[in-house]
Amino acid sequence: MMGSTWRYPAEWEKQHGILLCFPHNGNDWPGKYEAVQWAFVEFIKKVTSYEEVVLLVATEKLKEKVGGMLERAHVNTERVSYILQKTNRSWMRDSGPIIVRNGSERKALNFSFNGWAKYKNYRLDRHVPGKVAEFLNLPLEQVTYKGKPVVLEGGAIDVNGMGTLLTSEECLLDPLVQVRNPGLSRADYEAIFLEYLGVTNTIWLGEGIRGDDTHGHIDDLARFVNEDTIVTVVEPDTKNENYKALQDNLTRLKNAGLENGKKPNILTLPMPKRINFEGITIPASYANFLILNQAVLVPTFNDSRDREALNILAEAFPNREVTGISAIDLIWGFGTLHCLSQQIPL
Fold first, then answer.
1. Nearest Cα to 50, choosing from 83, 22, 14?
2. Under a CB-based contact definition with an 8 Å cutoff, are residues 14 and 293 in contact?
3. Which of 54, 157, 339, 340 is catalytic?
4. Burial level of 5, CB count in 10 A (0-12/13-18/19+)?
5. Global pTM?
6. Per-residue pLDDT of the chain (346 residues; tens, 9 = 90+)
7. 77 in a domain, yes or no?
8. Hey, is 164 helix, strand or coil?
């Protein structure tokens, strides 16, 4: 089966920069908003050590405040560009555009963000793909299937850039909970992946981790680290509520094939110990790392397993600097480094 001439590049391919949106909705981090802003400054500082940051800010006033914070933290502000745009939230992985390539051409895809089919306040986020495409001077294409707009978040998919995509049944195929595209089947999604992302082979995992607000995003579960290697999270404690689902995903990956018919290499990452805050289980995962041009930023959780996860990822990315970033405040918003960012491929 022939794929599209357009292709969604793998995250480790050459990047122009990273799209971020400075947090301004304190409701996403109740009681931790101040801490989250400084955690975000640290995140920007790390990214600008390696490449550009395109930063959405809600208002001119916030832009001035952020500029002052970046200066105080000695961030390389020459590598930060601003887009003035009000948003509902800061999760650029999901509301931002997905940028695809065809040879030297690039275009931005708009996947009609709808608040993960869960929240009502997403109308401002709908403007993000258009604003970013305009800023980058790229054409914007609305993704449709059988005449209807398609809803798909960037956090729901991961690709190796060669034709294989990872996603989960819980996120895309559950007929009752957070249904993004009512009536779409596995085959329908695979047709969309083929047409818009150049994907000829889809690996379906089962369920996501407990507490995941998105209902099964792949970027908390399993990620490609190169064209033929997938890292997946497993839970060492057999009594933990994630144990069974993550073992099932591991089995599925071991039985899966890549676009070339070969078996993927599988690495396992531990899960951090359970994080509870105000009686809520928080979906912390080391799989929510972000790949940059010369580095990999990994969320850490003040946990003895942090070191183990960093070592595994350092071996998986021998030519990149693997750095932990404390995400103990960010995760109170139910996501960390990967969820908050979207790469802009060159």
1. 14
2. yes
3. 339
4. exposed
5. 0.97
6. 455 699 999 999 999 999 999 999 888 888 889 999 999 999 999 999 999 999 999 999 999 999 999 999 999 999 999 999 999 999 999 999 999 999 999 999 999 999 999 999 999 999 999 999 999 999 999 999 999 999 999 999 999 999 999 999 999 999 999 999 999 999 999 999 999 999 999 999 999 999 999 999 999 999 999 999 999 999 999 999 999 999 999 999 999 999 999 999 999 999 999 888 778 888 999 999 999 999 999 999 999 999 999 999 999 999 999 999 999 999 989 999 999 999 999 9
7. yes
8. strand
User: Does residue 204 lie in a domain region?
Assistant: yes
The answer as to whether 190 is a domain residue is yes
CATH code assigned at 164: 3.75.10.10
Give the range of the structural domain holding residue 88, as residue numbers without chain letter: 15-345
Q: Is 21 a catalytic residue?
A: no
Task: Please state the domain count of the chain.
Answer: 1
With contact defined as beta carbons under 8 Å apart, do 331 and 273 qualify? Answer: no
- Greatest distance between any 2 Cα atoms in the chain: 54
**Is residue 246 included in any domain, yes or no?**
yes
Q: Which of 105, 207, 99, 218 is nearest to 158 (CA)?
A: 218
Residue 153's closest CA among 130, 126, 182? Answer: 126
Of all helices (H) and strands (E), which one includes residue 248?
helix 243-255
- CA nearest 298: which of 231, 226, 253, 208? 231
CA distance 154 to 273: 26
